[in-house]
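Need tokens for this chain, all 230 residues.
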Amino acid sequence: MKKITIAIDGFSSTGKSTLAKQLAKHLGYIYVDSGAMYRAIAYFAMQNGYISTDFFDKETLILGLPFIHLEFKFNEDLGFAEMYLNATNVEKEIRTIEVSNFVSKVAEVSEVRAKLVEQQQEMGENKGIVMDGRDIGTVVFPAAELKIFMTSSPETRAQRRFDELKSKGDVVSYDEVLKNVQERDYIDTHRDDSPLVKAENAIEIDNSHLTRAEQFEMVLNLVNQVTKTL
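Here are the structure tokens for all 230 residues:
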């Protein structure tokens, strides 16, 4: 079966990564979590004091971009690739609410986006890839054979994110998570460079009332429909 490029975009906490991992594993494709790349740079900015709740030194972060090396390394025990920042595994660190509070601001920086889009496009040169993010179908892979746009209500997404963080032992409140979701939605859809929009030929899926299994089967059917026409 001919391999294709699958671009999955959508709002935060819609389960994009979960779906992308399922598809990649089932199809034998490469999976790339583009959001993890932006999270890693946000974490780098936090660790170096470039960003806080009332301060963001964009210029110094931009100057530091050449010294940031990002790499995905497959973890056989977990069954997916983890994010490494300058040779250090930061998979756990980048998933915190603290990083979530800053990642959309960091992703607004055009120089950051340019650096990561270039890397992401190189990863997908040979197709057979599933990538999720905010601008995969519009900017990174505008010619992707299958584009999915995922959405659900802010309240549903906040509850999912809250449950996930609680299961990891993080001390957070639902209201805090909902506020973060709403703020990220606004920043993602209103930034000047590559805002979150549904690609013209993307298929929208509202998964507010879908199980993971139902969602997976729905998209797998779409994959089969596309590959049959090639």
